[in-house]
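[Automated response] Your request has been received and processed.

Submitted sequence:
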Amino acid sequence: MEALVLFLALLSLFGTLTAQQSALTAPDEVAALKKLVDYWNLGTKLNFTGIDPCSSNANWAHDPANPLLACDCSSNICHVTKLKIYALDISGEIPNELFLLKKLKDLNLGQNVLSGPISSAIGQLSDMEYLSLGINNLSGEVPTELGNLTKLRSLSFSSNSFIGSLPPDLGNLTSLQQLYIDSSGVSGPIPHELSNLKSLQILWASDNLFTGKLPDFLGTFTDLNVLRLEGTMLEGPIPNSYGALTKLDDLRIGDLGGEDSSLDFLENLTNLTILSLRNSRISGQIPAKLGTFSNLKSLDLSFNKLTGSIPNSFQNLDLLGYLYLGSNNLSGEVPQNIGFPTPLALDVSFNPLSGSIPSYINTWNSIGTSIAQYRYGSGKEVQLMRCISNDIKCSNNKNPSTSFSIKCGGSEMETLDGNKFEDDSETLGAATMNIGGDHEWAVSNTGAYLSNPQGSKYTTETSSQITQTLNSELYKTARVSPSSLRYYGLGMQNGAYRIELHFAEIQMDDDPNSWKGLGRRLFDIYIQGERVEKDFNVRKEAGGSKRALVKVLEANVTNTILDIHFMWAGRGTCCIPLQSTYGPLVSAIHVSQVWGESSSSNSDKRRTGKIVGLTLGCFGVLIIIVSLLYIWRRGMARSPLHSRIQSDSPTKA
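Generated structure:
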């Protein structure tokens, strides 16, 4: 009897497998697939001649095939349930035939060049669980019909060109666990209806022009592991409700306006490995409790209003590899056992700190503090560092500098006009400062490319020719930074200066037929602490990649120091064409004094003395010349001999 039952079971299983192998794809879906293949020119990869699209023997039926097409053939007819066309540079709009595949559960069209709006017909795909449209050029408004896809677990439409606000209907996606909408182009307030997404584990929403307050309801998403909200127009304070997000592993909030925040909400977020609250109007003191967050690997609290001292408890953070506390108002000394045993990149720049940096820390930046004198050798270097911190009044030395030229990220070279650009090829780290030339300039970098599998690298280069210039070599290397890159003119003669900033986008491609050409690099430029460019886009300004661009600015030097600051403010794409492709980039810098407008008082006096002497010595000759000129000028029209040079410092944008 048992043998008979086993035989019948095997017979049934064989019959099921035979039925599945013989089942054919639904005719309407076959027709739709053929239209898609033709429209996207995929005939060489998805050739249905003589083979059913849902055949299990097809070369597109199993991972890691790309394109990939998988089906459910459990009934007498097969239905397409999975379609992947990933990073194949398919272009054009999304055809309506796609939405005839109504049994789709997994659709991946990421990293292509799809354009135009998404049809409202997408709402017909109600079985969808995984939808990826990220890194394309899709436009229009995000369709409200996405709210019909209530089975969605993962949704991505990041790095696109959408307009308008997020549809409140997205609040219907209560099964959603992952939402990637960074750099998507959306703007306006974040709808309160999204408070229903309580199953979210990952939310990437940076680089969108969201407005209003940071949503309090995010504090109810207690399953969140990752939250990224940088480079928006959102305002603080950071809600105390975020203190309930105890599963957070990666928290990055930045570039906030509005009211100040404190760090009190961090009390119970002890699972954090990455914490960045850079440029978020954080005030008050750093809680000692942070020193008990044993999983912390990267902590960035730079560009805030923090006061008090660096907690001694930070000496217990054994895994900490990056600590950024620059541009605050921290005082006291750096704890002497901080950064041991894990090698630490430490930035404490521009704080009224004193003492010394522990000798075993090799990657550090203490510019703009009193710490500098303990780690720089010569008295001249110490004096220059103190001038940068602006805590003393600096006067010109006997031979003040009036110009300098830097080949950012590259070796010394001379341009066709005879201008020699000095070497700046010194390797910089995640928190580093270097004095170049004959103490005439310095460069500092802070920030780490945490997501780059190749590790952080702070220069880039190309072998391609650079157009729109006769000095192509000048632009083939560049300094890059994930956060803050500053160049300083040191020991300069006070007065007005012309600043030439040389750029060429050499990391991001310029191919309109590839997803690799969809990246956007945006950063801000500050001169003498004043912002002169916001969301500066090298490629857009130059008219394309690998094209030279010279930005000319002017500034006044009043304390012998010129400060040129390139800063990433959370804007632009992060990962096109490679991970960690973002942040400031500069190819070269040339600075020269503007004579005759705002020179130093000593120079004015010397020049005046020479003029008086010459006048007295040639008085008799001048009488004759003046007489002749008087006769000549009577017949000449009066016109100005010189054009006024604009030499005012730029104002804050």
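Summary generated for your ticket: Residues 4-20, 598-653 have pLDDT under 50 and may be disordered. Helices lie at 2-22, 27-39, 379-389, 538-542, 601-617, 619-633.
If you did not submit this request, please reply to this message.
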